[in-house]
Design brief:
The protein is of the alpha/beta class and about 190 residues long. It is built from eight helices and ten strands. Strand 9, helix 7 and strand 10 form a beta-alpha-beta unit. This is Glycerol uptake operon antiterminator regulatory protein.
């Protein structure tokens, strides 16, 4: 996965923004909070608009994030990648040749240590750290695991984005439409 100048990964939380995102210059998009019944149509339409879909498997309503559910995503939906907090989902995504993005919630030092141990076990292609507004922790995780990082959660301002990028993340996931518009793959940082 090469993001080129795409430092924002737009995360779609509602369908009213879907059409707008399809007409955007973003190549990679993140789909959250979808109903399994809508998943095929939405991802097909996204692909028709040359979008590479990253699905958050834990947030698909009606899908159990077990081996059968992930097999369904891999074979029927065929996203570019899968995001999950679950080790089994990450392992299955890697096995099926999809990008595997391990999502970690960093609540305290214990969560940080357990998260780094999990990363060593699953060896995902990318890590998504939440909250993504703590540059020192982003740098610490990167030094420990040497896997490219996305920052997400509480990214509200251009300063938050720039701090995360300065800390070494590859991209920022956000559902904030103003940030989608401010940072475009064509223009990069304004």
């Amino acid at each position: 996965m090469t993001l080129d100048n795409q430092i924002i990964l737009p995360a779609l939380r509602n369908m009213k923004d879907f059409e707008k995102l399809l007409d955007s210059p973003y190549e990679y998009i993140v789909l959250l909070d979808l109903h399994i019944g809508n998943l095929k149509n939405i991802t097909t339409k996204a692909k028709q608009h040359k979008k590479k879909v990253l699905l958050h498997a834990d947030l698909i309503h009606g899908l159990k994030a077990d081996d059968y559910g992930i097999d369904y995503l891999c074979h029927q939906i065929q996203p570019e990648g899968i995001i999950s907090t679950r080790a089994n989902v990450i392992s299955k995504a890697k096995e099926k040749g999809l990008l595997a993005i391990q999502r970690l919630f960093l609540l305290d030092s214990s969560a940080l240590n357990k998260g780094c141990a999990l990363i060593e076990k699953t060896k995902p292609d990318y890590i998504e750290l939440l909250p993504g507004i703590i540059p020192e922790i982003i740098q610490e995780v990167h030094l420990k695991v040497k896997i490219p990082i996305f920052a997400g959660g509480f990214i509200r301002t251009t300063q938050d984005v720039e701090s995360a990028i300065s800390a070494g993340v590859k991209a920022v996931t956000t559902s904030n439409k103003e940030l989608w518009e401010h940072y475009t793959p064509i223009h990069g940082l304004k």
